[in-house]
Amino acid sequence: MSTFLENQNWRYATKKFDATKKISAADLAFLKEAIRLSTSSYGLQPYKVFIVENPELRAKLVAASYGQAQVADASHLLVFANELNFGEAGIDQFASTICKTRELPLEAIQGYVDYMKGNITGLPEEVRNIWTSKQTYLALGNLLNAAAELKIDVTPMEGFIPAQVNEILGLDKLGLNASLLAPIGYRHEEDATQHYKKVRKSNDKLFITL
Q: What keyword terms does UniProt attach to this protein (predicted)?
């Protein structure tokens, strides 16, 4: 029987990590693969994911995250960074990957390539940046579910100053912007939040059948 719902009830946004516990290389590889396999619009994955282990960088990022200690105390810190001004170059690179992976000539997918370019490149840059930022949330969803399966805690964070994170990690120079932070690791036994009852809307307040 599936343990998916059991895992969802187990997980929560961890407020205090046990800094002495580290995620194994095998489990980290599993989480990375779950992120890599995540769905994204057109399959483009217009983002990068930084795995920050360096303690000095982590300390600086705590200050850029309103002092949230999870950023430093978790086993690893993941920073989801969306691509800025995504356009033809990114689509062409994706098309090249399709051709190599599926052993196809470019002509076989040219219609799809043109379709993507027609839908994306004509949008204002600000709209494209919002769109690529939204894609990171899809990848985060896969991370949350995969981590819960391994009983690894994740704290999704929007509470940080993107400009400061960008500067600390040099994202500006890479044409990237920090969209989400996700400390991952193991909850501390003293984190009282783990014992709180989960609060969600009831079915009748959340779902509407038409």
A: Flavoprotein, FMN, NADP, Oxidoreductase
pLDDT at 1: 63
pTM value surpassing 0.70? yes
Domain count, the chain: 1
Please enumerate in sequence order all residues whose Cβ is within 8 A of that of 176, keeping only pairs 6 or more positions apart, or say none.
Answer: 47, 48, 81, 82, 83, 84, 166
CA-closest candidate to residue 183, choices 47, 23, 4: 23
Bridge partners (DSSP) of residue 181 are: 79, 157
Return the ∠ at Cα 155 (arms to 51 and 1), rounded to 5°.
100
Q: Which residue has the tokens 């960074």?
A: 81
Select from 6, 32, 42, 23 the least CA-distant residue to 139. Answer: 32
- Provide the percentage of residues in the chain whose pLDDT is more than 90: 99
Helix (H, G, I), strand (E, B) or coil at 162: helix
The tally of CA atoms less than 13 A away on the side-chain side of residue 133 is 15
Domain boundaries, position 121: 4-206
> What is the SS3 assignment for 154?
strand
87 is written with which tokens?
A: 């356009």
The pLDDT value recorded for residue 38 is 98
CATH number at residue 78: 3.40.109.10
Structure tokens of 176? 């990237």
